[in-house]
Amino acid sequence: MTHDGSAASAASGLLPENIQNENIWRLSIAQALAGANAVVVYATGAIVGDRLAPSAVLATLPISIFVVGMAACILPAGALARRYGRRAAFLTGTGAGALAGLLAMCAVLLGWFWLFCVATFFGGGYAAVVLSFRFAAADGVAPGRRARALSRVMAGGVAAGIVGPQLVTYTMDLWTAHRFAATFLVQAVVAVLSALILLGVRLPVPTAGEIADGRPLGRIVRQPRFIAAAICGAVSYLLMNFLMTAAPLAMHLSGHSQESANWGLQWHVIAMYGPGFFTGGLIARWGAGRVVAAGLLLTGLSAAIGLGGVDVPHFWATLILLGLGWNFGFVGASALVLECHRPEEKTRVQSLNDFIVFGLMAIGSFSSGGLLAAYGWDMVLWVSFAPLVLAFAALAAMARGKHADPAKSQSPAS
Prior knowledge:
18 helices; disordered N terminus; mainly alpha; 80% helix; 0% strand
């Protein structure tokens, strides 16, 4: 790009194309590394919890605490990014991720259930910051390319689907007397590596307008498009977490091996992030609303297949379709969020959306283990259909509002 082109980009709020591409690659790699950390928590949380918890009902509590950590840290992370820039938030988050791994290792060595819960809370704080990677990819990018940039960063999670479960498989028994202790140590190392990658991300410095200006949040959240985005994003993530949290323990209770659960999670995570290579293109062609609807349908199909049996293929098919449904539902909902705000409102609106998504998801996460322990895997699957009805209703309301007044459907961020 020429000097004049660079100047024009700066004047329009766009980053030079080479910097845009470098940011996307770095964020994609960091997404992969951070995703591996999350997979470790999901693959081991219920198993370690079952071993350390004073009651079987509390077995999935560490994963629920992970979700609480996400919800609790989203707004502070957004405020930090708005005041000091996204990179400051990124490095704070990776620090929390490294601390999470070290505390989890100590919890396993000492046999302290509550210390393990504290560790997963910090892991959730790391995950809260990772959520902003997808939105950061759209910073300084032309509106027509934002959905693709967002989707490409999410695609970085494909590597997490391979690295995370294999990390668990190859490290869980390295310390024979303390299963998973070495896994959590490696988890901390991976978080530090992610921080080194993120040091090279170059994003626009927050302006005075981004810190102070913008419409009242109350006005923004009353938009039918924002309501649909928040509800569909929440339902997509809630059900993914709800079923994925319970699945490894359900497989364990059904007599299947830890390796079988690890393979199921690996293909689940690949299905979550693999479509990211083309989801942005689907959104550009068909619209975010239709892609979200397809994701919700796939999630419903995954639960239906799970009800068909408790053999390993049933669990794997459920997890794979659940991952595909999450990708279309959550990435599509995230693209809808980008249409709900002006540039100076982005960090406030994006962090509020994620707070809503993960605040609601925390409720579902807490109920997953109790339902599984009290009523079994089938009840967990049946309950998952209720949120899907709510999400489809929100999409229908958004479509009615768009058809009633097309002018109101135009993006305020353009």
